[in-house]
Amino acid sequence: MVRLITHNLLSCHVKGCTRNNFPLRFQDVKVELREAEFNAEFLRNFVPRIEWKALVDAGKELGDTSLPEELPEMLGDEFLKKLHHVLLEIHVEEGAMVCPNCGHVYKIMSGIPNMLLTESEI
User: Which CDD domains does the record cross-reference, listed alphabetically (predicted)?
Assistant: First the structure.
């Protein structure tokens, strides 16, 4: 399923598309909110792996503006709960992710992104 925790790790892999291929942009999406168990320790450990601007922008694309533009130095509980919601509770069920460089469209159906490429795209 496409959650922003996985979206933050995805880039376009079309042959020759090596610049400006991250983050993939959402298009025509259907979003569902699903409650997930809060784990502050997991979030604190995961924060260094996050491309912050990409996460904030993706959240905005999906209608969530709760994250600050800059990653705060102090990772308090209020901030971690907002981060938890954006990373783990927003689910993209339908739509697409589009490469900002080459325009390749990765369809999302039933919460699963199709990241497979045709032979000519590899």
Answer: Trm112-like
